[in-house]
Design brief:
By secondary structure, the chain is mostly helical. It has 2 domains: 308 residues; 101 residues. 70% of the residues lie in helices and 1% in strands. The chain is built from 16 helices and 2 strands. It has a two-stranded antiparallel sheet. The radius of gyration is 25 Å and the shape is elongated. The two termini are 38 Å apart. Bound molecules: heme C (HEC).
Length: 445
């Protein structure tokens, strides 16, 4: 039968399903990165407390641990499955590709995660109940499990950008999929960010301890300033390396908005460096309001644009450079027995081969042309562009303003032939181009 493996289209008006992914992802990243960063910080503090006999550090770790339990673990555990739900709706074939390549990696990650969750409870609960050496060992295993979850997930997320090795397509092996050229720069970039985040959260806790013990609060704020500054530098260093390991299509998208992104990153780097230096030089001036506000700044000015950028740079693909964002398989992957769906779409048309297209739209007629064109636009463009005239997500209205049907058609041909690197190649039969162009032109953009 001439059908391709599709799922029902999850259409999210105005904002687009990609933003839903982005919002869930950004909140999850804040929580998950904080918890892995804190695990490393705990290992450092517990070691210091044990070696230098600084039992005054334990109450700080306990407070920090409570914060983690309530904040990172609750939010992280809700948004983690949340990403699964959102991604399954928004990009079912993307998720399917990841599962087919990495099911055992994910299972292993889950084991580490379970250890991590039990570990954080044990760590906080037993902090003043077991001997210090056992507590130190517990802290070290907690840090290892946390970093383990990161290392495993990063290989998977890096594959979404690019398998990184051409060999993967013929072998289809999980290790070729996992160890791409950008896996390690990506991993260290995240580790740097996690270290920085552990300090940023640490400043909230240390500044809240002023009343109990001002000298200790200042000492810890200063330490957290150092930790954050080092984490920030590691992040910047590996960010540059990471950018150098990205595929060409990523650079094509990056170049579109390069100036504003670089400007935004420089401003952020300056603001945060000043904040961290302030914590080191004048720890007294850091209070809980300032420290908490800085987390919000990171979330809104750092993570949200950062995640949007990473999502954008993956375009036109959603995973492995063989599945497009619009859920169409774009190349053969012999190692996995996967065949490109582009030829059959070019021959039969998208409406015919997608089993979820209603029967009355399978054949374009004068009566259903606009409706068929609308469905075609939803299937081919809505994953990356809002179609509504009031849409917010990379809206087509700003990109097709004032164009007539013929103008729009010439853009569709260009997209179809693959001559615009960040948009999926989608060759359609002439009558489908025509219906889509007619619908888009009727939208008064
Ligand atoms: C995989 C994601 C993706 C899909 C699917 C997609 N686009 Fe795009 N499109 C982009 C990106 C990324 C840009 C460039 C950045 C920007 O304009 O914000 C872009 C830009 C454009 C532009 C501006 C001109 C240009 O060359 O930059 C037009 C017009 C456009 N898209 C139309 C469409 C139409 C029509 C469809 C459906 C047939 C479509 N796009 C499908 C990602 C996509």
């Amino acid at each position: 039968m001439d059908i391709i493996g599709q799922f029902p289209l999850f259409y999210f008006p105005e904002y687009g399903s990609a933003w839903m992914m982005g919002i869930t992802g950004t909140i999850h990243i804040l929580a998950s990165h904080t918890s892995v960063g804190a695990a490393m910080l705990f290992a450092f503090l517990a070691y210091k407390a044990y070696k230098e006999n600084r039992s005054d550090l334990y109450p700080y770790m306990k407070k920090y641990g409570m914060f983690l339990l309530i904040f990172s673990y609750v939010i992280g555990s809700i948004t983690g499955p949340g990403i699964w739900y959102t991604a399954t709706a928004a990009s079912p074939r993307g998720i399917s590709a990841l599962i087919h390549n990495f099911v055992w990696v994910w299972a292993t990650e889950w084991v580490f995660f379970v250890y991590e969750v039990i570990g954080v409870f044990a760590l906080v609960y037993f902090i003043d109940k077991i001997d210090k050496k056992t507590h130190l060992k517990l802290t070290f295993t907690f840090a290892l499990a946390s970093v383990g979850t990161l290392a495993l997930i990063i290989g998977i997320i890096s594959f979404m950008m690019w398998p990184g090795t051409e060999g993967y397509y013929t072998t289809g092996s999980a290790s070729d999929a996992f160890f791409g050229v950008n896996t390690f720069p990506h991993m260290f970039l995240r580790i740097g960010f996690m270290i920085m985040m552990s300090g940023v959260i640490g400043l909230v806790i240390s500044s809240a301890m002023k009343k109990e013990n001002e000298a200790l609060s200042n000492e810890l704020s200063r330490k957290m300033g150092f930790v954050s500054l080092i984490g920030g530098f590691v992040t910047m260093f590996f960010f540059m390396w990471y950018m150098g390991t990205l595929p060409d299509n990523a650079h094509a998208v990056f170049n579109v908005t390069k100036e504003s992104i670089i400007q935004n990153r420089i401003i952020l780097a300056i603001v945060f460096s000043l904040y961290f230096i302030l914590a080191i030089v004048r720890p007294k001036t850091i209070n809980t309001v300032l420290a908490s506000s800085m987390i919000v700044v990171i979330l809104l000015a750092g993570l949200w644009p950062g995640e949007k950028l990473r999502e954008s740079m993956r375009k036109p693909y959603v995973a492995g450079q063989y599945i497009y964002s619009n859920q169409i398989v774009s190349r053969d992957v012999p190692g996995k027995g996967i065949k490109s769906e582009l030829p059959i779409i070019a021959e039969k048309g998208l409406l015919k081969v997608n089993p979820f297209v209603p029967e009355n739209l399978k054949v374009i007629t004068a009566e259903n042309k606009l409706e068929a064109g609308k469905l075609l636009a939803r299937m081919s463009c809505s994953n990356c562009h809002s179609l509504e005239t009031t849409g917010k997500f990379r809206p087509l209205k700003d990109r097709l303003t004032g164009m007539d049907k013929e103008g729009i058609k010439s853009i569709l041909y260009a997209i179809g032939s693959g001559s615009i690197p960040y948009m999926p190649k989608l060759e359609l039969p002439e009558h489908e181009y025509d219906a889509m162009a007619e619908y888009l032109a009727s939208q008064k953009y």
